[in-house]
Amino acid sequence: MSATPGAITDADIEEFVRTCSRPDGWRGAIGLYQSMLREGPEIKALADTHGLTVPVLAVGAGGGPFTVGTMSRAAATEVSSVSLDGVGHYAAMEAPAELAKAILEFIGNIDAL
Hints:
Layout: H1 10-21, H2 27-38, H3 40-47, E1 56-61, H4 66-74, E2 79-84, H5 91-94, H6 96-112
Parallel strand pairs: 1-2
Protein name: Alpha/beta fold hydrolase
GO molecular function, one term: hydrolase activity
InterPro entries: AB_hydrolase_fold (IPR029058)
């Protein structure tokens, strides 16, 4: 899931293990997936509405336009997009400076409106 060698360190893995080994350590992640299965009709109904009317930034990896394509279907407004080449599922860990730059530029453009 990480496309950037060395981005996730042994210390990071130790922290993941420590956190997930606690009682209910997986509760949040499991709850997310359980809610997606239980709330299917509600989510579909939301998707059939007018969509997001706030500015949207889709940040994806170089693997293709999946993120911006998905967000474009959920948004009623234009979706700004950034592709972080060479990044996997952990953009905040694999390319923190690039992700921060993209977010700050996006926010700056919104503030300029």
